[in-house]
C-alpha cells in the first residue's frame, strides 16, 4: 500500500512539474500532437488561429534538438481566403525566406540544420473573405505565446509607458506586444524600446483595430528594463494591451502640456531617480499638420547627449540620476501649436525654496544666489502669479553674463526657466530677474537654489520723448553682484535704450545686452567696480511722452550730478568731499590746508600712506619753497572756479564766414535738393508709423477690459552667439552662410564695431597702397610719379569710403522705410558694413564679377532680414537707392567738370589768349 501511494505521489509530482514546465514555455493553447510516437515525422505538432484582412499573428517554435525544421499550413476556406508567411526568424533574429519560408501558408517551409532555440513564425491575412481560419504544422512544438493582458483606457492623443525586466539567458522567447481597441475610428501606435535603446514600432492604418510588434530574443539582445509605449490618436478608445512577458505600469511617468510657435524652443527639466529605466521622450502634436520635435537633451553635467530617435521621440539608456534638460522645438507650426511632452520619469518643479514678492506696475524684482563649482544641479527658476491679466518675464543671468529668458504668453499664469549645470558654467553670484509686464500682481518665485532679494536694488519711473537723453547715476557698492539695468516701456510700441555707460574712473564701459521682452531693454556689467556709474538712456520710436520704468540691482542715486543734496553720502571720499566743498585726505573730508606748513604735512602723510612716491614728494616740497601762505590761499580760492574766456571778435567773424561758405556752397545746395524728395518720403513713412502707434495705444487701452487678449512678443536674437565669434569667424560666416549671420546679428548695439569691421576690410587696404609702392621702390629702385600721387590720394580715398558708407546707408534706409521696412538706420548700416567681407573674394583670379554679384545678394538678404519685408520690396528699395546715388554722383561729376573747365578758361583769359575762334 505504501509502495502504491509513493508511486501515485511521484506521478502527481511529475504531472505538476510538467504542467509548470508548459506554463514556463508560455503556451496559452498547447499544440495538438498529431503524431506523438513519430518524432521524425514532417508533422509533429499543430496549432490553430484565425485572421482578418491585414492582421498579423505569430507562433513560437521550440527547436530543442538537431533535426531539419519543417513548417506547413492549411486554410479552412482556401478558395476565398489568402494567408501568407511574412517571415520565419531564428533565435538570433535572422530571417529565413528560402525553401518556401515566405509566401502562401499552404506551401511547405523547411530549414536545414536549424539553430537550437525559440523560432518565430510571422503570419499575415492578405485576402480574407470568409472566417480566416487556418492551422500550422511543425515537426517541433509550435504554440501561441502566453498573453499577459493589461486593460487600460487611453484618452485622445495620450501616451502610457509600461516596463518589464528581462535577464540574459533566462528567457529565449521573442518579446511580443500587441494592442487592440474598441473604437473603430481610433488609431494606435506601439513601440518597444530595449535597454540599449534599439526600438521596434508599429502603427495601425485605416480601420485596423489591432497593432503588434515583436523584438527578437530580447534576453540575447539586452538585459535590463524594457519599455513598451502605447499611444492613441484621433478619438477616445478603450485599449487592451497584450504581451508574452508581464509588463507593469511606470508610476512616475509624466505628460507636460505646452504651447509653442514655429522656430520657438522651450526647455523642460526632467528629474531622474532610477537610472535602470531608460529615459524615453515623446513630443506629441495635437493639431494636424504641426511638427514638434525634441532637438536636444542635456544630462546633469550640462553635456549634450545623443538621444536615439524613434517615431516622434527618442530614448537614452542608463540615464544618470539628477536633473536633465529637454529642449523642444516647433518646426512646422501654424500660430500657437498645443503639444504634449511625455517621458518615463517626472518633470522637475522646484519646491525647495521660495520667495514671495509684490511687484508694482511693470516693475522688476531681482534675486541673487551664490553657486559653487562643485554644484552639479541645473538652476531652475519658476514664477506664478495670482491675477488673470498680468504677463511675466523671467530671466536668469549667470555671473559671466550668459542668460536664459522666458516670457508668458496669452493667459498663461506661470513662467519657468532652467540653466545648464551652473556650477560648471560659472561660479559666483547669479541674478534671477522677475518682471511684471501688465500691472501689479502678487508673484511667487521658486527655485531649487536658495534665492535672496538683492538688498540694494532700486527702480524709478520717468518719461522720455523721441530722441531725448537722460542721465542717471548708479551707486555700486561691491563687485560681486553683476550690475543689471532694465528699462520697461509703459506704452505699447515705445522703445528705450541704455546708450552709454561710464565707469567710476570716467572711462566708457560696456553693458552687455541681455535677451528680454518686446517692450523691455536689459543689459548687464560683469564684476562692476565700486563707485558711481553714470548711464545715459535714450528714447527711440516714442509717440509723445514715453513713460518708462528703470530698475537696477544697485541704488539709483543723485551722486555725481554736480549738485549737493541734503545728507548726500556718495560712498567715495573724493565725491563726498567735493559735494561738501572740502578735501579728501586719508579717507576723510577735511578743510583744505591754508598754510605752507599744513601742505607739507599733508604731503608727508601721503608719502607714509604710499599714495605718492619719494620723487613726487621731493618735487612738490621744492615747489612749496617758493610759496607764501597768502599765495597758497589765493590759489585755493580760485582752484575750482576757472574763468571762461570770451572768444575774440575776430574769431567770431571768421567762424561766421566759414559757416556761410559751407551753407551757400553750390555742391551742398545740389545735395540738399537731391535729398529733399527722400527726406519727404521718409517723413511720410514716419508719420504713418506714428499714426499706427497711436492706433496701437488706443487698442491697448481698450484691451485693459479684455484680459484674454495678448500681443505676441518679438523673438529674441541670439546676440551671445554673435559676440562669441571672432573677427575671422564672422568673415567666414558672412561668406559661407549669410542667412545665419544676419539671423544672429544684433540689430542695434552701437556703430563702433561694424565701422571698425568695415575700416579693417576696406579703408586699411587703401592706406597700405603707398607703403606697397614704397617697398617696390626700395626693392627695384624704379621711381614712378604714381608713387607720389598715391600718398595724398590713399587717405582721401579711405575717408571718402567711410563717408560714402554713411551716405549710402542713409539713402538706402530711406527707400527701405518707404516700402515698409521695420528696421533702424543702424541696422541698415550694419548690413552694409558686414557685407564688405565678401569683397575679399575679389582677390581670386577671374572671380571679381562673381564676387560683386554675390555681394549684392548678401546685401539684399541682409536688408530683407533686418527690415522684415519681402524679397521683391527689398530689391526695389535697393535699385531705387542706387538710382538716387547714381544721380547724385553724376551731378557731382558734372559740377567738378564745369569747375575744371571754368578754371581752364580763366587761365586762358589771364594769359591773353582768345577763347573765340578766329
Structural class: alpha+beta
User: What is the approximate shape?
Assistant: elongated
Report the portion of residues in β strands. Answer: 25-35%
Q: What profile does the largest beta sheet have?
A: 7 strands, antiparallel
Question: How many strand units?
Answer: 51
Distance between the termini: 163 Å
Percentage of helical residues? 25-40%
* Average of per-residue pLDDT values: 76
By DSSP (H or I, 4+ residues per run), the number of helices equals: 18
* Rounded radius of gyration (Å): 41 Å
Low-confidence stretches: 9-29, 637-649, 667-675, 700-720, 914-918
Question: What labels would you give this structure?
Answer:
918 residues; 18 helices; 31% helix; five-stranded antiparallel beta sheet; single chain; 51 strands; elongated; seven-stranded antiparallel beta sheet; disordered C terminus; alpha+beta
Amino acid at each position: 500500500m505504501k509502495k502504491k501511494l509513493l508511486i501515485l505521489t511521484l506521478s502527481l509530482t511529475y504531472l505538476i512539474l510538467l504542467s509548470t514546465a508548459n506554463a514556463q514555455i508560455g503556451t496559452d493553447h498547447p499544440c495538438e500532437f498529431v503524431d506523438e510516437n513519430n518524432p521524425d515525422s514532417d508533422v509533429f505538432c499543430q496549432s490553430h488561429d484565425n485572421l482578418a484582412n491585414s492582421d498579423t499573428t505569430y507562433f513560437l517554435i521550440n527547436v530543442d534538438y538537431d533535426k531539419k525544421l519543417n513548417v506547413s499550413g492549411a486554410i479552412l476556406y482556401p478558395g476565398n481566403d489568402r494567408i501568407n508567411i511574412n517571415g520565419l526568424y531564428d533565435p538570433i533574429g535572422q530571417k529565413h525566406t528560402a525553401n518556401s519560408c515566405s509566401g502562401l501558408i499552404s506551401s511547405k517551409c523547411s530549414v536545414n540544420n536549424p539553430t537550437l532555440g525559440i523560432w518565430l513564425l510571422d503570419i499575415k491575412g492578405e485576402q480574407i473573405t470568409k472566417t480566416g481560419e487556418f492551422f500550422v504544422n511543425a515537426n517541433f512544438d509550435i504554440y501561441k505565446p502566453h498573453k499577459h493582458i493589461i486593460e487600460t483606457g487611453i484618452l485622445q492623443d495620450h501616451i502610457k509607458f509600461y516596463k518589464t525586466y528581462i535577464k540574459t539567458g533566462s528567457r529565449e522567447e521573442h518579446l511580443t506586444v500587441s494592442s487592440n481597441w474598441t473604437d473603430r475610428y481610433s488609431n494606435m501606435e506601439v513601440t518597444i524600446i530595449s535597454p540599449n535603446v534599439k526600438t521596434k514600432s508599429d502603427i495601425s492604418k485605416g480601420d485596423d483595430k489591432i497593432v503588434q510588434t515583436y523584438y527578437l530574443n530580447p534576453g540575447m539582445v539586452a538585459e535590463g528594463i524594457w519599455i513598451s509605449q502605447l499611444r492613441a490618436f484621433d478619438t477616445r478608445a478603450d485599449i487592451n494591451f497584450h504581451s508574452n512577458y508581464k509588463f507593469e505600469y511606470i508610476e512616475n511617468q509624466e505628460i507636460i502640456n505646452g504651447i509653442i510657435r514655429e522656430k520657438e524652443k522651450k526647455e523642460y527639466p526632467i528629474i531622474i531617480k532610477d537610472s535602470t529605466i531608460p529615459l524615453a521622450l515623446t513630443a506629441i502634436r495635437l493639431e494636424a499638420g504641426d511638427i514638434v520635435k525634441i532637438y536636444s537633451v542635456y544630462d546633469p553635467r550640462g553635456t549634450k547627449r545623443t538621444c536615439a530617435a524613434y517615431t516622434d521621440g527618442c530614448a537614452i539608456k542608463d540615464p544618470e540620476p539628477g536633473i536633465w534638460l529637454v529642449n523642444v522645438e516647433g518646426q512646422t507650426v501654424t500660430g500657437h501649436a498645443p503639444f504634449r511632452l511625455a517621458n518615463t520619469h517626472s518633470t522637475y518643479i522646484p519646491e525647495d525654496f521660495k520667495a514671495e514678492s509684490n511687484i508694482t506696475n511693470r516693475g522688476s524684482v531681482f534675486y541673487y544666489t551664490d553657486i559653487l563649482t562643485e554644484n552639479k544641479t541645473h538652476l531652475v527658476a519658476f514664477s506664478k502669479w495670482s491675477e488673470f491679466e498680468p504677463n511675466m518675464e523671467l530671466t536668469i543671468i549667470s555671473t559671466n553674463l550668459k542668460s536664459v529668458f522666458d516670457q508668458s504668453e496669452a493667459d498663461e499664469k506661470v513662467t519657468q526657466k532652467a540653466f545648464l549645470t551652473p556650477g560648471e558654467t560659472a561660479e559666483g553670484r547669479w541674478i534671477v530677474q522677475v518682471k511684471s509686464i501688465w500691472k501689479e500682481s502678487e508673484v511667487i518665485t521658486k527655485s531649487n537654489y536658495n534665492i535672496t532679494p538683492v538688498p540694494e536694488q532700486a527702480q524709478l519711473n520717468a518719461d522720455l520723448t523721441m530722441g531725448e537723453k537722460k542721465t542717471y547715476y548708479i551707486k555700486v557698492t561691491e563687485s560681486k553682484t553683476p550690475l543689471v539695468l532694465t528699462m520697461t516701456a509703459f506704452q505699447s510700441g515705445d522703445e528705450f535704450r541704455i546708450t552709454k555707460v561710464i565707469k567710476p574712473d570716467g572711462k566708457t564701459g560696456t553693458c552687455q545686452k541681455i535677451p528680454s521682452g518686446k517692450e523691455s531693454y536689459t543689459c548687464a556689467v560683469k564684476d562692476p567696480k565700486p563707485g558711481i556709474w553714470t548711464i545715459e538712456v535714450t528714447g527711440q520710436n516714442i509717440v509723445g511722452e514715453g513713460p518708462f520704468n528703470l530698475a537696477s540691482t544697485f541704488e539709483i542715486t543723485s551722486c555725481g550730478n554736480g549738485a549737493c543734496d541734503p545728507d548726500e553720502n556718495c560712498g567715495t571720499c573724493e565725491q563726498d568731499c567735493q559735494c561738501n566743498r572740502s578735501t579728501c585726505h586719508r579717507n576723510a573730508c577735511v578743510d583744505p590746508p591754508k598754510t605752507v606748513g599744513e601742505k607739507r604735512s599733508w604731503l608727508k602723510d601721503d608719502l607714509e600712506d604710499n599714495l605718492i612716491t619719494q620723487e613726487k614728494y621731493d618735487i612738490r616740497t621744492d615747489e612749496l619753497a617758493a610759496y607764501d601762505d597768502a599765495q597758497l590761499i589765493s590759489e585755493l580760492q580760485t582752484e575750482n572756479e576757472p574763468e571762461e574766456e570770451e572768444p575774440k571778435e575776430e574769431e567770431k567773424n571768421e567762424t561766421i564766414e566759414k559757416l556761410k561758405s559751407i551753407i551757400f556752397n553750390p555742391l551742398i545746395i545740389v545735395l540738399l535738393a537731391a535729398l529733399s524728395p527722400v527726406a519727404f518720403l521718409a517723413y511720410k513713412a514716419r508719420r504713418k508709423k506714428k499714426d499706427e502707434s497711436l492706433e496701437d495705444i488706443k487698442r491697448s487701452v481698450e484691451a485693459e477690459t479684455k484680459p484674454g487678449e495678448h500681443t505676441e512678443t518679438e523673438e529674441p536674437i541670439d546676440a551671445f552667439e554673435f559676440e562669441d565669434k571672432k573677427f575671422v569667424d564672422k568673415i567666414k560666416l558672412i561668406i559661407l552662410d549669410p542667412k545665419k549671420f544676419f539671423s544672429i546679428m544684433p540689430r542695434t548695439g552701437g556703430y563702433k564695431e561694424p565701422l571698425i569691421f568695415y575700416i579693417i576690410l576696406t579703408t586699411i587696404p587703401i592706406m597700405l597702397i603707398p607703403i606697397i609702392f614704397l617697398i617696390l621702390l626700395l626693392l627695384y629702385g624704379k621711381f614712378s610719379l604714381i608713387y607720389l600721387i598715391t600718398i595724398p590720394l590713399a587717405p582721401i580715398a579711405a575717408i571718402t569710403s567711410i563717408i560714402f558708407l554713411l551716405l549710402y546707408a542713409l539713402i538706402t534706409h530711406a527707400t527701405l522705410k518707404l516700402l515698409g521696412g521695420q528696421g533702424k538706420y543702424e541696422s541698415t548700416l550694419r548690413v552694409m558694413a558686414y557685407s564688405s567681407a565678401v569683397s575679399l573674394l575679389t582677390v581670386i583670379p577671374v572671380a571679381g564679377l562673381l564676387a560683386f554679384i554675390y555681394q549684392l545678394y548678401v546685401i539684399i538678404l541682409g536688408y530683407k532680414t533686418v527690415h522684415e519685408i519681402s524679397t521683391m520690396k527689398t530689391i526695389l528699395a535697393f535699385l531705387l537707392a542706387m538710382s538716387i546715388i547714381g544721380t547724385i554722383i553724376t551731378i557731382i561729376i558734372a559740377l567738378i567738370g564745369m569747375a575744371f573747365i571754368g578754371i581752364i578758361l580763366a587761365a586762358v583769359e589771364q594769359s591773353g589768349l582768345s577763347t573765340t575762334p578766329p
